[in-house]
Amino acid sequence: xxxxxxxxxxxxxxxxxxxxxxxxxxxxxxxxxxxxxxxxxxxxxxxxxxxxxxxxxxxxxxxxxxxxxxxxxxxxxxxxxxxxxxxxxxxxxxxxxxxxxxxxxxxxxxxxxxxxxxxxxxxxxxxxxxxxxxxxxxxxxxxxxxxxxxxxxxxxxxxxxx
Length: 162
Known about the structure:
This protein has helices at residues 4-20, 34-40, 58-65, 69-75, 80-94, 141-159; strands spanning 24-28, 49-54, 98-104, 119-126, 129-136.
């Protein structure tokens, strides 16, 4: 079950989406379904939340979300380019108004000098295109996952003006 701050954000998202008649889908890597969990902790989520894909492996990113293998090869899974492709892919496949995607390095391992632990890209796709933001969290694995999920929900709320 998602933490209370996430549920509060999800409650705001639910109200805003229902009011505006918008649908949402998610594509999650480093958050492992935490965003979808927060959204579905709110009763009535089925009125706007279409579903999500936990695309942890690169193969799932390509097979289920349509991320071009050459993007993964040239930029790596944790990149703005791949986050954009994930968001666009899940939006298209779920026919959602809005889609959010997260790819990052939660830690404690897996980081490098070029891509340190805590590096996260969050992309949001809608009818106007795809925007991506870069974050660098400094917590442990759980804190980095929570920060990423929080930022994703906040980005959705910002986009719909709620």
